[in-house]
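Question:
Now give any protein.
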Amino acid sequence: MGFWARQVTPRLVDSGSDDPKIMPLRAEACRGLRGDVVELGFGSGPNTTVYPPQVTSVVAVEPSDVAWRRSEQRRAASRVPVTRGSLDGQHLDLPDDSADAVLSTFTLCTIPDLPLALAEVRRVLRPGGALHFFEHGIAPDESVRRWQRRLEPLQKRAFDGCHLTRPIDRIVADSGLELERLETAYGPFPRAMRPWTYGYLGRAVKRPVD
């Protein structure tokens, strides 16, 4: 991980993390969370302000020391205790069937081996637990997709591996989790931002084994 990824990217991400246009969507992604939650890509902690009261603890998976330091005030103000867990979403240092829910917001775009990370999510979820996600990814319109493909190499360099073209719904469904809810739409931003703002808001459940 180079200087830009260590020092610049976390600050760029933090600068827009609590955009008033995005916070209601973050809150919607968090709706229904309860009990012991694992948050992938905790970042600077913008979701701490919208955790439901049913959440009792959060294990934050966050590789960036800069982002973790920048989350200090939010963590201190949070009524939910937050502890830092694994640094890598592809290898969660948690027991099987130990989490009531997993939360991911603007993180599945960046994890290098996303199927491996989702296999880990499925492993640590208790039967009946769910992955709650709010992500950006591939758009349905070919004109937007062309721009996403053109811009993705630069996006990956500037934002530490962030992809613009991942079909989030299909990848989650292929993980063995069952999509229980999915909403897709362009975010509330100007049309010129469409390559970055096609959103996937949903919940995928780990069904109990019969």
Remarks:
- Strands lie at 35-40, 55-61, 82-84, 99-105, 125-136, 178-186, 198-205.
